[in-house]
Specification:
Shape: globular
Number of strands: 27
Helix content: 25-40%
Strand order of the largest sheet: 5-14-15-3-16-17
CATH class of the largest domain: Alpha Beta
CATH topology of the largest domain: Rossmann fold
Oligomer: single chain
Distance between the termini: 52 Å
Number of helices: 31
Structural class: alpha/beta
């Protein structure tokens, strides 16, 4: 009986990945288990780098060798023993494939891909029929548009950038230096008999304008006299646009001089293919319809609108295929993606959207006894959407699966069957299990997470006043519906709303384009190679190398483990990964440098009594005391301000948690001089304790006379903003409206705002 009970739990002994301190932990199976704790406490190290890695490593060991060679190789995690693991499926926030042909329709897999099912539907029911299913595919010769080869867009010349209509040819109306500014090609346009070169372009007649752009109706040959030899050459005239297209659009320009290539690219834009209207399909495929809708209509509709269209199909065969599609579409609604369309490119989706799209793949799975591991599935989600995600995770659990979630949301923690809190703090001060048990048991403890669970959200009752603002008027891009709004200057403004409501369209696109000088800190990933460290990423390392080089009178290359200073055996990696044929890869500490990464010569040069490796082993907090130089001190202070003081200068960024990466990126931008900061969900991956520290930092930026605009859902941050702009009421077509503008206190009284409803429920009012 005891043996059976043991098998009901995942047992981990002596886990020591990254900052884990030989952790022993028991995780109940077939439960929703939340891993909580401050950012950098060891949650991801335990869930992903230990449990997931070992589960996948052992599962792959059962595959034939020819398959294993084509799969990712997992190094055996640092742990004494692990028992009762089950196959693991990781659902992370990594972006989906960035291929321009990859769309929501091709990415979603639910028993089958959506895109093939849509094509199959039209091949069986569409009238007039274009042929088999591949005749409706933009990736197949039978279905793709011949003009754009299925891409739906074409590269073209942006004439508005090329020509200055307020100038004459002599004054430099042609902005491309290869056709002006004294180049020999300028001869075509400056000495042309078809128009006057001293005439402003806006005064050109239609015929003159055509001659300049395209060329005359009759061929024109011009005599070109070379200045150095006096030789006369007969040159056939080409219009500016015609010549540019031939030389820079309709040929491979990769071999051209870099400066010319880069300048030419400034005058190039992407636009919808005129032949297919951006669908990527040929006329025959576009002519086929079901109940008056083409396959393009199906792909371009948002999911919530496509559902009733599919439900209206009464053809016996079509109804069966439509039923399969509908099941998947309803799951997309459940995960809060009803505002997307099947034609939406996956390279335009956020990390949170990508993760929710991956979730759809598993919702209808008949597999059981699987361990699902999620990386903060509530990232980028409004509290209203978090509820939906919670129900889906519970449904996975109820199908006899173990669901492990790395999470900070108090909404999600409340749903947990079991909580494992890591800590007590981050980095070297974390890596321990400080609590295991139920949510109710957690609330009775004195951990940081427990304190946050017990506390109500405090409102900013004294928001900063403002008199000046940035004005956005009549914005109608994407799903925004003629939006006009003021964004205050000199205060902290939070822009919120449900997923797909138009926040990014308003701020990340429209505002940033109108005010390009603002400093944007977004969610794009940073380089996380084993050779990248906080010191190299923030630029501090360059200054440290210079100090060492000046002190010792040698080259700065001696103080880089990527150059002269590298250990000759491990090449600056600090460890060796030997080729052990078919055995699992095992990293071995380099015996030559003992993990220091530098060679003896580099280590022989001191600065203030420490060699380069000893300096790199300092924490950010220690380095602040060691380096009084203003430039170094400023950047180190930025890292300390975002809560990374425990981190060493040498720690590989590949070992950082998601929250640490986010804060490191923020720190790298803070030293820049600017007066407008735009932050895209800066609380992603942050514990409530870390959110409080972030708020202090944002307040300091505002106090210095800057404007801070955050696109955010986290209620703890919204409540402390000076001004809130709430978009909605829903996502996609049903969003794009300003539901509220005002202070946090005023938001509580807004009956139409979903954000106000949740904030009213969780705040101290």
């Amino acid at each position: 009986m005891n043996e059976i009970k043991k098998r009901e739990n995942i047992e981990i002994f002596g886990a020591a990945e990254n900052n884990l301190k030989h952790v022993n932990v028991t995780i109940p199976k077939e439960k929703l288990v939340i891993f909580a704790g401050v950012s950098g406490s060891g949650k991801s190290s335990l869930a992903f780098d230990t449990i997931a890695a070992e589960s996948n490593r052992q599962w792959q060991a059962s595959y034939p060798m020819f398959l294993r060679q084509r799969l990712p190789r997992y190094e055996k995690p640092k742990a004494d023993a692990m028992y009762n693991l089950t196959p693991a499926i990781v659902v992370d926030q990594k972006a989906l494939g960035a291929n321009v042909r990859s769309t929501v329709g091709t990415a979603v897999i639910y028993n089958n891909q959506l895109a093939p099912l849509i094509r199959l539907l039209f091949s069986r029911v569409g009238q007039p029929s274009a042929g088999g299913s591949m005749a409706y595919s933009l990736n197949h010769p039978h279905g793709m548009c011949p003009e754009c080869t299925g891409l739906g867009e074409k590269v073209m010349l942006d004439e508005s950038k090329l020509f200055d209509m307020d100038k004459s040819i002599n004054e430099g109306a042609i902005r491309f230096s290869q056709f002006s500014g004294g180049s020999w090609q300028e001869f075509y346009y400056k000495f042309n008999p078809l128009y006057r070169a001293d005439k402003k372009l806006r005064d050109f007649t239609e015929q003159e304008w055509k001659a300049l752009r395209i060329g005359p109706d009759e061929p024109l040959v011009m005599d070109f006299i070379r200045n150095n030899t006096g030789q006369v050459s007969k040159l056939p005239y080409e219009g500016v646009v015609t010549r540019f297209n031939r030389l820079y659009l309709n040929r491979d320009i990769s071999k051209l001089r870099k400066s010319v290539r880069e300048e030419a690219m400034q005058f190039i834009k992407k636009g919808l293919c005129s032949a297919c209207g951006g669908s990527g399909l040929n006329p025959k495929a576009l002519a086929s319809k079901i109940n008056g809708y083409t396959i393009r209509d199906y792909n371009d509709m948002q999911i919530s609108d496509l559902i009733p269209v599919l439900e209206a199909i009464d053809h016996p065969l079509g109804k069966s295929i439509a039923g399969q599609i509908l099941v998947c579409l309803h799951h997309m609604i459940d995960v809060g993606l009803g505002y997307l369309s099947l034609s939406r490119r996956t390279d335009t989706m956020s990390g949170g959207e990508s993760q929710r799209l991956k979730m759809v793949r598993h919702l209808g799975s008949s597999l059981s006894n699987i361990t699902y591991i999620f990386d903060e599935p509530t990232a980028g989600l409004h509290p209203a959407d978090v509820q939906k995600i919670g129900k889906l995770l519970l449904a996975l659990r109820d199908n006899h699966n173990t669901v492990l979630v790395v999470e900070h949301s108090r909404q999600m923690i409340e749903l947990a069957d079991h909580v494992v809190e890591m800590g007590p703090l981050a980095g070297a001060q974390g890596g321990q299990v400080i609590f295991q048990g139920t949510v109710e048991q957690l609330k009775q403890t004195d951990t940081l997470t427990a304190a946050c669970m017990r506390e109500k959200i405090a409102l900013n009752t004294h928001p900063l006043p403002w008199t000046q603002s940035f004005v956005l008027e009549h914005v109608s891009r994407n799903n925004l519906k003629d939006v006009s709004v003021e964004i205050p200057k000199g205060i902290l403004t939070a822009v919120t709303g449900v997923a797909g409501s138009g926040k990014s369209s308003l701020i990340r696109q429209e505002f940033v384009e109108r005010y390009p000088d603002c400093i944007v800190i977004d969610q794009k990933p940073i380089g996380t190679s084993a050779r990248s460290t906080p010191a190299t990423y923030t630029g501090v390392m360059d200054d440290i190398r210079k100090l060492f080089a000046k002190e010792n009178g040698v080259s700065v290359q001696w103080f880089s483990f990527n150059s002269k200073g590298a250990c000759p055996v491990c090449k600056g990696k600090g460890e060796i990964l030997p080729d052990v044929a078919f055995a699992d890869p095992v990293a071995i500490l380099c015996e030559e440098c003992m993990g220091k990464r530098y060679n003896p010569a580099a280590l022989s040069y001191p600065y203030q009594g420490k060699n380069i490796e000893e300096v790199m082993s300092l924490t950010i907090h220690q380095a602040l005391e060691f380096f009084p130089q203003p430039k170094i001190h400023e950047r180190l202070q930025c890292m300390l301000d975002v809560g990374l003081g425990y981190m060493t200068l040498r720690q590989p960024t590949s070992t950082l948690s998601g929250g640490e990466v986010q804060r490191l990126k923020l720190a790298s931008e803070l030293h820049k001089q600017g007066n407008v900061y735009v932050l895209d969900e800066p609380t992603t991956g942050l514990h409530n304790q870390d959110v409080a520290r972030l708020l202090q930092l944002l307040r300091r930026i505002v106090t210095a006379g800057n404007t801070v605009i955050v696109v955010e859902h986290r209620q703890e941050l919204l409540a402390q903003a000076d001004w809130i702009i709430d978009l909605g009421p829903e996502g996609g077509r049903k969003g794009g409206k300003v539901m509220f503008t005002g202070t946090p206190e005023q938001l509580l009284a807004c009956a139409d705002s979903l954000t106000g409803q949740y904030l009213r429920k969780n705040s101290m009012v």
